[in-house]
């Protein structure tokens, strides 16, 4: 049986990107990049939506010699989409038109290799709400992008309790926070 990890990189104020800022908000350091490269060697099947697929396959095409992109290109990818047509141009990618929660539940039952998401805010939101996420990992960069931030990650999420299973600091400021999520019916103490 497999497991699913939702994986986000965010600013301290919860944005996934910011207008005019470079990738990793320009704050990636050698310690974080080494960990990221090591983590990308894990045998994940990566889940994403069509928008993230288009963005990441474009990056992979522009940077074929980048070690991280090469590893991602070589790994299996499942794209949940009603608009993309097969065959997809990015190697090892397949389209899944099924309802994501039911499809992931079946993938977890059937497959051995672990699953993880890449970007895909709305897909992750539905998987969390559907109760199929086993791990919730967030890497927080020490910036606030209130004026330029876009793509607020957690808007529209259900209420969650997060039980920490790992944490780490990279390069003196980047925080890795790894949790087991539990969807709540409401704020603690309000249930029967």
Automatic annotation (TrEMBL):
<dbReference type="InterPro" id="IPR024072">
    <property type="entry name" value="DHFR-like_dom_sf"/>
</dbReference>
<dbReference type="InterPro" id="IPR050765">
    <property type="entry name" value="Riboflavin_Biosynth_HTPR"/>
</dbReference>
<protein>
    <submittedName>
        <fullName>Deaminase</fullName>
    </submittedName>
</protein>
<dbReference type="GO" id="GO:0008703">
    <property type="term" value="F:5-amino-6-(5-phosphoribosylamino)uracil reductase activity"/>
</dbReference>
<feature type="domain" description="Bacterial bifunctional deaminase-reductase C-terminal">
    <location>
        <begin position="4"/>
        <end position="176"/>
    </location>
</feature>
<dbReference type="Pfam" id="PF01872">
    <property type="entry name" value="RibD_C"/>
</dbReference>
<dbReference type="InterPro" id="IPR002734">
    <property type="entry name" value="RibDG_C"/>
</dbReference>
<dbReference type="GO" id="GO:0009231">
    <property type="term" value="P:riboflavin biosynthetic process"/>
</dbReference>
